[in-house]
Amino acid sequence: MPQSYCLARIHLLSDGDAFPSDVSPLKIDEGDIRIFRDTLLAQMRLLKNAQGWWLEFFPQGRWVQRFFVDFVFLQNPSDKLADTMVLGKKYWRPVAKLAYAELSPDRAAAEAEDLAAACTDTSRMTRNSAAVRVGDLYEASTHYGYVNGRGTQYISKLTGRLPLFERHVLLHALAHAYLLTQEKLSEALAGQLAGERSEAALRTLYMDVALFNATSFFRQPVKRQNAPTCQAWSRIDQALGIHESHAELFKQVETALNHTGDRGGCLVKVKQVPQSALQVADSIALRPQRAECRRWIRAGVGG
Question: Whole-model pTM?
Answer without folding.
Answer: 0.82
